[in-house]
């Protein structure tokens, strides 16, 4: 299974910013970071194929509860 992150290039995101995000994900491999697989330009959207992580995003967790730095590290590790 993979996850697809869809980024609209029409909503103020510059091509340079999108390219920088792709390069950062491609060049920074870590067991603590979701693995970037590939990217595709689909119309005015950039589709990023990434490792699927069941359970939602860290952003979702941080929006629901307050966590200390050590707790955020533990969530990221798991």
UniProtKB/TrEMBL annotation:
Database matches in Pfam families: Pkinase (PF00069)
Family from the record: Belongs to the protein kinase superfamily. STE Ser/Thr protein kinase family. STE20 subfamily.
The organism's place on the tree of life at top rank: Eukaryota
Protein name: non-specific serine/threonine protein kinase
Enzyme class: transferase
Domain Protein kinase: 1-78
Gene name as annotated: Pak3_2
Enzyme Commission no: 2.7.11.1
Matches recorded under PROSITE patterns: PROTEIN_KINASE_DOM
InterPro entries for the chain: Kinase-like_dom_sf, PAK3-like, Prot_kinase_dom
Segments traversing the membrane: none
GO terms for MF: ATP binding; protein serine/threonine kinase activity
Keywords assigned: ATP-binding, Kinase, Nucleotide-binding, Transferase
